[in-house]
Write a structure and sequence with these properties.
about 190 residues; 6 strands; globular; alpha+beta; four-stranded antiparallel β-sheet
């Protein structure tokens, strides 16, 4: 890995910013004790092979669904369609969503939510799955998916948070060795 490569520098800066936010912000999922114990989150090394172009296939009419959520009743989402891509030589497909609460907000019109699990889930990564936030370009079927930006939901750090649980169709039968790993401290790990 070239530490001076602009792509790697960008990923490292984003991770440093997130770690700093988690250690210092009142909006951090960590309590005071957790903030003191946190030095940095654990990530896979940046790998540009996980920054891929996918084909976005939107549904003609978004499909309303109820997505399972930890510690809470299912929440209203819209299935917007699928992203189709090749990863590690394998054909893959994931559903993408928008939260019903922000569906009509013009600021989030081009934002898509992609929760997923893979063969690292429950081993090196958070067992309940990780998330990717995607941005679609109006008028284009191409979309960037950078799995180096895959992140854990807040419930991975604090049981008091409720988080969407990736639907079964969003399991990848491959190892995605990119993005954030499972959060552990010296004493415990949430949701093995």
């Amino acid at each position: 890995m070239d530490d001076n490569d602009p792509y790697h520098v960008k990923i490292r800066r984003a991770r440093f910013s997130k770690d700093s936010f988690f250690k210092g912000s009142n909006e951090s999922p960590f309590d005071l004790k957790g903030k003191r114990e946190l030095t940095e989150l654990d990530y896979f090394d940046p790998d540009i092979n996980y920054d891929i172009k996918a084909r976005l296939e939107l549904l003609d009419t978004p499909k309303p669904i109820r997505m399972s959520v930890s510690n809470s009743m299912p929440e209203a989402y819209f299935n917007m369609g699928t992203v189709i891509f090749k990863l590690n030589g394998q054909d893959c497909k994931l559903s993408v969503f928008q939260n019903a609460k922000s569906m009509n907000d013009p600021r989030s019109a081009d934002e898509l939510f992609c929760p997923f699990t893979d063969e690292t889930s429950g081993k090196e990564t958070y067992g309940a799955g990780r998330f990717l936030d995607l941005h679609r370009n109006t008028g284009s079927n191409d979309i960037e998916m950078d799995f180096n930006n895959a992140y854990n939901p807040y419930c991975a750090y604090n049981h008091e948070y409720s988080c969407p649980i990736p639907p079964e169709e969003n399991h990848l039968n491959i190892r995605v060795e990119a993005g954030e790993k499972k959060y552990t401290t010296g004493r415990f790990s949430f949701f093995k």
